[in-house]
Every structure is written in structure tokens, then in C-alpha cells.
Amino acid sequence: FRATLAKTQSCRLYLVMLTSLFLSARAIPSLITNSSLNPSDASKSPQFDQFRENPGLSDAAIKVPTAPWMKGPLLLRPDEILDTSHHHEKRIKGKNDEEKTFKALNRRESGVRGMKAMKKIVRKVEKLDENSDSEETQMDDGEFKSFGRIAEKAESEKRFGGKMPWEREEERFILRRTKKERVPTTADLILDEALLIRLRREASKMRKWLNVRKAGVTETVVNDIRSIWKSNELAMVRFDVPLCRNMERAQEIIEMKTGGLVVLSKKEFLVVYRGPPSNSSEKTNSEISSSLYEREADRLLNGLGPRYMDWWMRRPFPVDADLLPEVVPGYRTPSRRCPPNTRANLSDQELTYLRNLAQALPFHFVLGRNHGLQGLASAIVKLWEKCVIAKIAIKWGALNTNNEAMADELKHLTGGVLILRNRYLVILYRGKDFLSDEVADLVEDRERLLRRYQHFEETKRESDIEILEVVTNGKPTVETSKTGTLLEFQELQRKFGEMEMGNLETEAEKAKLEKELKSQEHKLSILRLKIDKSTMELFKLNSLWKPSERDDDIEILTNEERECLRRIGLKMNSSLVLGRRGVFAGVMEGLHQHWKHREVAKVITMQKIFSRVVYTAKALEAESNGVLISIEKLREGHAILIYRGKNYKRPSPKLMAQNLLTKRKALQRSVAMQRLGSLKFFAYQRERAIEDLKVRLVNLQDCF
């Protein structure tokens, strides 16, 4: 407090001194002591006569006023005193001009600089150009303009890099996206303008609507709309996916099914007007100008089946596969024959190309059921005669659809190649070996003709073969030679080929099993070599670890003491976590560090087998010479509570856990144990597989 008071008094004294100095400076503002300035003006000034000790002497010392804290007087010669009254005024005036200029250029003052000031300058220059008519103050127009341009260009290049500050940059050419022209709706063409404005005003105030789910505009939705029309001439409908993504198509569907007119469309909402009573029965058949793409797609789908009018995407409307028959009498899978020097399987590049090709194609069918797809398969085969890819969409809102079952049945019925399948679509490729009905008939006719020619050739050959007389046991026999004929080949094939046909599959299966058995035995031998190597590594690491034996002289604790220590240990927040390395030297150091501050240490282990937890607890008790209190099951693992003992003495760091592994060696031992366990597990699997293969070989040989 005294030190603070002393500081306060010293500050007050300093302020008093500064105040007196300021007042003395204001009393005589024109006196400045400077020996380097001009002394002649000071000697001539009459203001300093009153301060001279002897006015008659020009070189006598002058007494100058001093500050209050100066003890003695201040005497200066006349040449050391300068009268700066006039110079000071001039300097201050020039300084004020400079400050004004500086403020005008740097401060943010309205009307002095910036965009407004530059605009004023430009206006004044333009007025000068317009009003300057006198010949004395004007040069020739061409010379003045050329000189102005040259001067302006030089100045702009020098200061502003090629342009003046008020010059604007040239407007960039921006190609804006043209807005889509609004196509007049049916309501715009039919209803009066006043009525349409009134209906839209009422529709904008509506706050209740009818939801259209994924199934689309069903019969139930149509009935609900018509029931609303009985009490109100407008009905608001809100569309869910997928129709909300194409509101133009949604408007077409709802006008077609309800017979009303859409007067307002906003986001996923449509307001439908029931129409005037007199014109409710009339149907407007507006001609829709379709594109070439739509016309070609319609031509492709004509004759395949009824169209799906609730289609939520762009035209054309695909075929509704649910309306096709489930069973087609006499249907059979189309015949297939791959061209020569061609593989039926698709490569990765071909598959990618077909997927990219299918992306731009329209959907051909819409499907909502999983089974009974013979009618759809017949339509797909008919489509494949014109298009190599069949694209099938799965209906939104259909119950219990399974695209995998759909794709499997269609593959089985058509024999095509599945390109893509997901929850929204199935794409089938007809395959390289696909033959249409016409081509298959031509191939069959050609084969029939070839067999007829072969038969004709065989009969002609038999008629021209010589009859040989073969004498056997003195009796002549007549035989027709069949050497080199088709009949000989057929007989040989019938005699030997069909007899071995049954055993061919058995031999192939036997060879396959023997090859698999040899492969499994080779893999098992490699695993056994790895097991031997891992065993040697683990043996070397275990030889470095010499676990201590449990001391027989253990402190005896009563049940009350054990219970008390157990509760203390469970309430402890600090714990020692035991990882995959197990018990090593670092664990012992951490345990003794815990015992340095508390009597009980809590060790948490993540081992799941309780026998391993007990083994770890006994190892900790033996290595630390502590007392095991209990083993508790926790949510994160098991907690091992160890008491340090009543006669605990911390061992020296040099002698602490010298018989245990280091941190690095402990990790190597853990990895080696894990590797050995995995190798033994895989070896056991190989042995079981080998035994199964041997059993299958024995059974196959018995059948043979």
C-alpha cells in the first residue's frame, strides 16, 4: 500500500511539472533557443530588450524565463535567441496548406476524391469541350484531339497502366441461357381469361391437398378427386416420386384420367379444375408434335403389347409387362448358335460398351411382378429381332418386387445375357449366338438339305462298290465293303462312342478330384513348413522370458480387508491397461508407479477367455510380489485388483523385471503366437478338405 501511495505521489508531481512547462511555452511562443539559426534577426528584434541585463550592451547576456523546477536563472547571448514570429507564421501557413492537400488526397471526405469527384471532373471537362468557342483559347480541333489523345495515353500508361481511373472496362460478351418458352396448357386454350385468373387466385389460397404415392394416379386417387369436386370445383394434388420429377407428364396423366383441367402448377403441386358443366363430357384431342426419337421408339414397340400410360418419364410410353399373359402355349427358348471363330462370352470392354449404349435407349417394358413372365419373354425375343438390348423398368410402388428373381427367370426363358440389374431396372442383351426365328428356320432347312445330300451320296456309293468274294473254310461269302463310307463311321460311333459316353463324365470328375487333391496336399505342405518356422521363432522368444515363481510366504488378509480393498479398487479411476503384449517389463514399471501413490492397482485386460485372465492375474502377482485381491468383470473387460502389501518396498529400476521381455520382444512374441494360431487353423481346414476329397474319390471308384 505504501509503495502504491509513493508511486501515485510521484505521478502527480510529474503532471504538475508538465503543466507548468506547457503554460510557460504558451506565455512566450516566439522564443526558441537554437544556436544554429540566424542570430542577426534575434538581435534586431525589440522584443528581447526587456530581458537584457544591460540594454546598452548589444552582446550582454539575456535572462530567459525558466520552468518552475529550474533552480537558477537561464542566461543566453543574443545570437543564441531567435525571433521566429514571422517565420513561424509562414511555416504554419504552408503547413496548413500541405495538411489540407494531404487530407484531400487521403481522407475519406465526400466530394473531394473517389468516384463522385471523378464524375464531377469528367462533367466539367465535357462542359469545357462544349462551351469553348473562342479562337484564342482553342487550337485546331484535329491538333487538339490528337494532342489530347497522346497526352492522355502517355499519362495513363505512366500512372494507371494503360487506362484512366474513370474509364470502364469493356463489357464482356456473356452468352446467357435462353429461357424456355412457356407452352400454353389446355386450360389456357379452353377457359376464359377472367375465369382462369379467378381460379388461379383461389388455387393459390388452398392449403389442403391429396397425396399421390409411388403407385401413381390409381383408380382410388381418381375417385378421391371426383368426390372433392362434388363440394368444390378445385382439387389440389401433391405428387410423390417418381412423378414429381416430371410434372409435365404428371399433368398429362391427371388430365387424361380425371377429365379435368390443370389451372395451377407449383413445384410438386397441381390444382385441377373440374371444368364447366356443359363441356365436361367433351374431350379435347390436341395434336402432340412428337420428335423423331419418339416416333422411332413407338414404331419399335408397336405390336409388343399394351402401353403403360402412367409412365413417369419422358415419351415414348413403354409396354406394360403386367398385362402380358403369364403362360404362352408352345413357347420355347430361342435356338442359339455362335458364329465361327467367335466366343459367346462378353469381354469387359464389350460389357462397358453395351452399358453405355443402353443408357441412351428408352425403356421398352415396365414390370411389377416376379414370376409368370412367359409373355414378357416372348415380347423380348420379338424385340431382339430389331434391337439388341431390352431395357425393363421396375414399377415404383409395386409390392414385394424382387429384381433378382425377375432377372433369373428372364435369363432362363430367353437365354440372354444380363448386363445390369438393380432395384430400378433390368437390362438384357440378346447375346452373340442369338438366332431369330427366321434365321433359325433357314439354318434348319439348310441342315436338312445337307443330310439329304449326304444320304443320296451314300446310296450312290453303295451301289457302285464292287462285290468281293471272300473264301472262308472253302465256302464263298458275299460281302459289301463299307470301308471309308459314312455307314462305317456311324457304326463305329454307335459301337464305341455311346458305350464310353456314360463313363466320360465319371472320368472327368475323377480327374478333377485328383487334381484338387494334389493342389490341397501341396498347400498343406507349405502350411506345415510355415508352422515349423513360426514355432522356432516363438521358441527363441520364449527362451528369453523366464517367469518368476510364486512366493510361498504371502501376506494373509482377512475377508474384511479384502472387501475393503476390492471396493477401493473398483472406485478408482486410474487404471493400467494390459494390451496384446501381455506381461512384460513395461507393465511391471507401470504397476510399481501406481503403487507409488496408492496401495491398490487396477489392471484392465481385454482377454475374453476367463482361464487366460486368471493366468495373467497369477503372472502379475508372481512378478510383482503383490497380493491378488480379486478379478472383476467390467463392461470393457476384466479388472485385476492387486494389493502392494503392508511391507512394500519399491525395487530399484536396474533390478526391476530383468527376467521379462522388452516392449519390442513382447510385441514380436504376440505376433508370432497369432501367426502360429492362424497357420494351425488353416492347416486343419486343409486336412479336412483332403479327407473329404479322398472320400469322394473312393465313392466315385465304387460307382465306376
UniProtKB/TrEMBL annotation:
GO terms for cellular component: chloroplast; ribonucleoprotein complex. PROSITE patterns: CRM. It is found in: Plastid, Chloroplast. Residues 34-48 have a biased composition (Polar residues). Keywords: Chloroplast, Coiled coil, mRNA processing, mRNA splicing, Plastid, Repeat, Ribonucleoprotein, RNA-binding, Signal, Transit peptide. Residues 34-53 are annotated as: Disordered. Residues 432-459, 501-530 form a coiled coil. Gene3D superfamilies: YhbY-like (3.30.110.60). Pfam families: CRS1_YhbY. It comes from the Eukaryota. GO terms for molecular function: mRNA binding. Residues 189-285, 344-441, 555-655 form the CRM domain. InterPro entries: CRS1/CFM2/CFM3, RNA-binding_CRM, YhbY-like_sf. Its main location: plastid. GO terms for biological process: Group II intron splicing; mRNA processing. Residues 1-27 form the signal peptide. This is Chloroplastic group IIA intron splicing facilitator CRS1, chloroplastic.
